[in-house]
Amino acid sequence: MSGNAKPEQNEATGINKLCASVLDDLAKIIREYPEIFPDDVPSGLPTERPQGHKIELERGAQPSVRTQWRLTQPKLHELRNLFDNLLAKGFIRPSTSPFAAPILFTPKKDGRLRMCTDYRAFNQVTLKSRFPIPRTDELIDNLRGARYFSKIDLRGGCHQIWVFADDCHKIVFRTRYGSYEYTVMPFRLTNAPSTFQLTMNGVFRDLLDKCVIIYLDDILIYSKTREQHLKDLEAIFQWLQHHRLQVRAFKKRNGVPRALLRITDPERPFEVITDASDISIRAVLMQNFSNGLQPITYESRKMQSAERNYPVHDKEMLAIVHALKIWRCYLTGVDVALRSGTDRIWVPSYCLLRELLIQEVHDSNLSGHFGVDKTLKALQQFYCWPNMVTCVQRYVAACPICQRIKSSHQRSTGLLQPLEPPQRPWQHVTMDFVTGLPAGSSGNDAVLVVVDRLTKMAHFAP
To answer: Domain 270-343 class?
Structure first.
């Protein structure tokens, strides 16, 4: 390599050489396990795994039946090809079950079509499984310290789980070619994710959180060293082969960019930085690594209508409390450095400093006697105190220069239209009530007053 090469080019070349070396070692391991890298999911039911998919319906549930939508000719052609493939593998079979769900097609990333069964009506009468799906943030925390990662995606994940024989008649889909029932677990079933996660946890139970994390059909192997990573990959391949699980040949990205977010290190101190605006609050959790403070995770949300009325210091405290609640799993029992996003100065109320500051912002030659909003915004950049809005409103309203010079933005009032005087007595009268008087002997506590506009003669009626 030339001595004039840039450091970025040297680093990129080193990464490419490292990736090529790792891929060569990985290819040797893959060639030892050809059964787990087929071009397609093999035929037959995967009965080697003890975990199957059980479907239980609510008591008194009736068979759900929905009409099939009309499909376009390209989709019918794809349906025909898909039927031939699934029937040949034994994944579906003709059915006369009273259950029926329609099918539809959605596009894949590569432009092909994916057949989906609309089980929404059937899912509503299915008893829900409560097996927990892992939280992605907890899974990511397990990766701390790892430098080598391999991502594996199961091929046709749900179709590698068999369905109990007495439940196959419940998952029937209807087409123009007839009704068919699955013998393997289809997509879009309400309990399919729970069953799949349960199966994968059982297969890799001895390796979970040691060198592998699993989220449904995605498997991530992680290691601290290259040698250990190759050993972990071989161990994973052995378990996959033992349980007859097939994966896609490659799901890789070489030399990926450095991640922005770091993984938490419980041995390092945490730092929380918060900030608040007029409509939202935000925070970032950080830790100090060798190259300085690095972000761990971000958090933000909009304020509710009542929270927008908080004074500035309460908004800042709202952001702090929200951040500590969200990240309590990291911050409980450890020392935390807290920094609020504001650098504004608190102005006390026992002196004329507040009025002087408003005068400086509003009356100076560089200000131009702005209105309430602009004056308030200029003050809030550097200062804060309770009821700042009210103080600014009063000052601007009492400014003599603003009252004399600034034009009104309100619509001008109309001319007065006085009533013409009447031509004779009692032609026009005015009436009003006088209420709240002490009750008299008859119980009346109000008086109706009638006045003639010409003579001003008045009559009073209790």
So the answer is: alpha beta
